[in-house]
């Protein structure tokens, strides 16, 4: 890229790269297309299909002519259903092209250059890049496994400065599965009450995939609602990653600023996909519980297998569909200095794609997604075990 004449990246995106997860998945797809036998447990995408009644609703909407530009903030029907479920007014809801766009809208609409966004690590890879894209400064707070990968009230308070604009929190968390309990959230809210310059973004996209009772920040701290943005979407719970519908619930002034950004970039989200999302939210919900039980049994199997591998320690997460094992002892025994190198060799030598912890701001770990069939999970775990017990780093030129 550097050598292309007359091409220059904007300052704002100097350090921005294509997500490490996407790069790894693309490399795995390339090796597979070349005929290699590859197992990929690298993507956070349910292996279930979108429910048929949701697909039918999209079909009907398209046939009924709902194919014109939708309102910028979302169709009234979908915004009203989201508002009704959250117990707020329509003015507090924006529908966007995935939860990812909600995050981007929020940062672009509020950050001035150099303003700080606190994020506990490990965090979903895009958090820091979205902040950089909006000219903000990510302030990464490592939260080790000893704290259950949780941000504590003390750590949060110590990181707040006059330039802090946001706290960005994800519960249940990608990649650790950490689920913030009511007590955890209360302790954080107590700190946040003292710093009125800090806005609070809580990404609850895995709320339906919680194996313990889920608590929303909105119910714990209603007094902070004027500076809280709750983010959610249909991608994970309803197996609708490709439909690209997410939403934000926040104060009307913030929603309207985010709408201004959205209106000058993508406009309203796909009208047909919004009809599908409405059917998902207002239709039968029982299958969510069935799917969650499938994920829970996969989780238990994966955690047990990982803990039986030499040099691997894996805590049992309470939510989402990822595990984040600590592989530092396995790396040391096998002569690996970085988890990124470990994952490169894992893919090249035994054909298994996993994401290095570095991508989530915490090296020495791996992220394994168990949103895959049991057969694929077993094949992947066999490969990981073989790699850890038999393989040394390949010589690099
Ligand atoms: N937040 C988190 C924590 C995620 O893991 C993801 C998807 N990997 C998103 C947001 C984005 O979801 P969407 O498909 O709605 O853009």
Automatic annotation (TrEMBL):
<comment type="subunit">
    <text>Homodimer.</text>
</comment>
<dbReference type="InterPro" id="IPR015421">
    <property type="entry name" value="PyrdxlP-dep_Trfase_major"/>
</dbReference>
<keyword id="KW-0808">Transferase</keyword>
<dbReference type="GO" id="GO:0006520">
    <property type="term" value="P:amino acid metabolic process"/>
</dbReference>
<dbReference type="GO" id="GO:0030170">
    <property type="term" value="F:pyridoxal phosphate binding"/>
</dbReference>
<keyword id="KW-0663">Pyridoxal phosphate</keyword>
<dbReference type="GO" id="GO:0004069">
    <property type="term" value="F:L-aspartate:2-oxoglutarate aminotransferase activity"/>
</dbReference>
<dbReference type="InterPro" id="IPR004838">
    <property type="entry name" value="NHTrfase_class1_PyrdxlP-BS"/>
</dbReference>
<feature type="domain" description="Aminotransferase class I/classII large">
    <location>
        <begin position="37"/>
        <end position="384"/>
    </location>
</feature>
<dbReference type="InterPro" id="IPR015424">
    <property type="entry name" value="PyrdxlP-dep_Trfase"/>
</dbReference>
<comment type="similarity">
    <text>Belongs to the class-I pyridoxal-phosphate-dependent aminotransferase family.</text>
</comment>
<dbReference type="Pfam" id="PF00155">
    <property type="entry name" value="Aminotran_1_2"/>
</dbReference>
<keyword id="KW-0032">Aminotransferase</keyword>
<dbReference type="InterPro" id="IPR050596">
    <property type="entry name" value="AspAT/PAT-like"/>
</dbReference>
<protein>
    <recommendedName>
        <fullName>Aminotransferase</fullName>
        <ecNumber>2.6.1.-</ecNumber>
    </recommendedName>
</protein>
<dbReference type="InterPro" id="IPR004839">
    <property type="entry name" value="Aminotransferase_I/II_large"/>
</dbReference>
<dbReference type="InterPro" id="IPR015422">
    <property type="entry name" value="PyrdxlP-dep_Trfase_small"/>
</dbReference>
